[in-house]
Amino acid sequence: MSTNPYAAPRAQVADETIDLRGDFLPAGRKVPTGNGWTWISAAWSIFRAKAGLWIATAVVLSVIYLALFVAYTLFPFVGAILFTLLSPVYAAGLVIMSRAIDRGGDARFNQLFAGFTHRLGALLTVGIVYFIANLVIGVGVFWLLGADMSMSAIPADPTAALMLTSKVAVAGLIVMALMLPVVMAVWFAPALIALHEMAPIEAMKHSFSGGLKNMLPFLLYGIVLLVASVIASIPALLGWLVLGPVIGASIYTSYRDIYFTEPAA
Q1: Within 10 Å of residue 251's Cβ, how many Cβ atoms?
Q2: Separation of CA 110 from chain center
Q3: Sheet strands (E) in the chain
Q4: Which of 104, 111, 98 is nearest to 43 (CA)?
Q5: Which tens digits make up the pLDDT trace of 48-85?
Q6: What residues contact residue 148 under an 8 Å CB cut-off, 6+ apart?
Q7: For the whole model, what pTM was predicted?
Q8: What angle do CA 216, 221, 223 make, to 5 degrees?
Q9: CB contact at 8 A, 138 and 96
Q10: Which of 39, 52, 115, 152 is most buried (most C-beta within 10 Å)?
Q11: Using CA atoms, how far apart are residues 265 and 262, in angstroms rounded to an integer?
């Protein structure tokens, strides 16, 4: 492992369920299916340790992404680029913050923006690759199927309207399936770049490898978070002030579990 100016002193969270001890495995390892739940419970412990800091972070990120959404409505292409480019940068900040809390270090609010001063070019490269993949896959699939992405001109004839809607639905499902490997390549890339000084393409390759080895844990993880997202959305979205940080911290806890060997007995 390389040295990192954002690394915090080594210490354990009191009730953590995954230990960081062990050797770093760049390509990751396969973990039990049940660890999909463990990632979330460990992330909850990290959130609970600094709940005030996390909630403040969630509020600030909400404002930032609301501004990006407004930019998207006014200038769709520019807004989409900004949203995609900045996401890995903020993800790196969340990972750095989670690591500091996990190790008992001095977690600070400004660590959210650490990606802007540490490996910014590499993180933006991940965002660029993700944006291009989104654009190529999305536009390509809808064009090949002859589906109108905007659904702006729905035919008056019910049969024609049903056919168009079906095309759009099928195109959407195909896009989701084709984007899954891309998401796997991006998911752990910010952590591998920020904490291990990896080059962007190398980080995405190892991120994909770690995700591919752990499809079942990620399936459980996704199901649990899907249910949690519905519950968090009920009270005027206020539950996302907790769920959002837990998801952010779970990027770190899943990385910590997959990319390190089992701790010594």
Answers
A1: 20
A2: 19
A3: none
A4: 98
A5: 999 999 999 999 999 998 898 888 788 888 888 888 89
A6: 142, 164, 168
A7: 0.81
A8: 95
A9: no
A10: 39
A11: 9
